[in-house]
C-alpha cells in the first residue's frame, strides 16, 4: 500500500471478494508518506497495516544500480529492477515466511493460463496504463501467488471506485512510473549530488568522429534524446551512443538512430525457455508500441533479437519485454544494439 488510489482500491476490491487482507507499506526512500496518513487509510479499510523499512536493500539494489548504469553510459530502468528485487523479491520472501498465501498489488496487469495452460502474465485491459512491461523480470514460480485486482479495470473505473468508497488517500502520492527516490528536481541533479559535483564536460561527435560541439556531462544524455544538443545542423540531431571511456556523446540524424535488432542478456522467461528461434513482439521501453521480431536464443540467458523493421532508440541498459498477443513471455536487459 503506497497510500495512493491504485493500491487502496486494490485492497478494497479484495475485501469485497472475501479475502483476508493486510496492508503492507514499504519505506524505501525519503519520499515516503506520513505514517499517520497511511494508518488513517488502513483504518478506513478496516485492515491491519504493516510497515517495512527496506531502505537499505532499496539503496543497494536499485539506487546504486541506477547510478552505476549512468556511469557506464547506459539507460537504467529502476522500476523494472525494483519490482523484481524488492517488491516481489525481498517482500515476498518476508511475507512467505509469515505464511501469507498471496501478494497483491495495484499494478495494471492480468494473470491467467497461458497457451500451455500454465500460469501466465498478461497486459492490463487498460492499454494506456498497462504495467506488465515493468513486471517482465518477475520469477515465474511466483505467478500462482500473485493477485492484480485492477487488471481488468480502466484507470477511470478505478477512480470511480475510489470516489464511491470515499477512500482517504495520502496527498501527494505519485504515479508508480515516476522515480520515487528523487523527491524534487531532475535525475541529472540527483546523480550530480550523489557524485559530489557536476558532470565532466566533453565532446559531442558524429559517427565519423568529427567534433560538433560540447556536452555538460554524460549523465545529462540518453539514447534517443533530441533536446539540449545545441548543434547547428540542417536537420534535428539525436543522441546515438554514449561513450564513457572517451567521455563522448555520439549524435546524428534520425536515420542513424535506427537499429535492426539488439542483444538481450540476463533473460527471465515466464514461459518454458525456448531452445529455438521464436517470433514475438519486442517492447524496448515503456510506451513503445512493440515491434514484431525473431528471438534467437544464444544460451539460457542471452538472445539475439532481430526486428521485422528497424526500430529507433535502442538503448543499452533498458529492459526489453517479449509478447505474444497479450501474454508477456519474459524479458531481459538490452546489452547492445545490432545494426
Q: Care to give the gist of this entry?
A:
The protein is of the alpha+beta class.
Q: How is the secondary structure organized here?
A:
Blueprint: H1 5-16, E1 23-27, H2 35-45, E2 49-53, H3 55-71, H4 78-97, E3 103-104, E4 109-113, E5 119-123, E6 146-147, H5 155-165, H6 187-195, E7 202-205, E8 211-215, E9 237-243, E10 248-253, E11 258-269, E12 278-283, E13 291-297, E14 302-312, E15 319-324, E16 327-338
Parallel strand pairs: 1-2, 3-6, 7-10
Antiparallel strand pairs: 4-5, 5-16, 7-8, 9-10, 11-14, 11-16, 12-13, 12-15, 13-14, 15-16
Explained architecture:
The structure is a single chain. The chain is α+β, with helices and mostly antiparallel strands. It has 3 domains: 5-165, 3-Layer(aba) Sandwich (Rossmann fold); 198-256, Roll (SH3 type barrels), CATH 2.30.30; 258-338, Elongation Factor Tu (Ef-tu), domain 3. It is built from 6 helices and 16 strands. The strands form 4 sheets. The chain has a 6-stranded antiparallel β-barrel with strand order 11-14-13-12-15-16. It has a 4-stranded mixed β-sheet with strand order 8-7-10-9, with no helix packed on it. Helix 3 (55-71) packs antiparallel against helix 4. The mean pLDDT is 92.
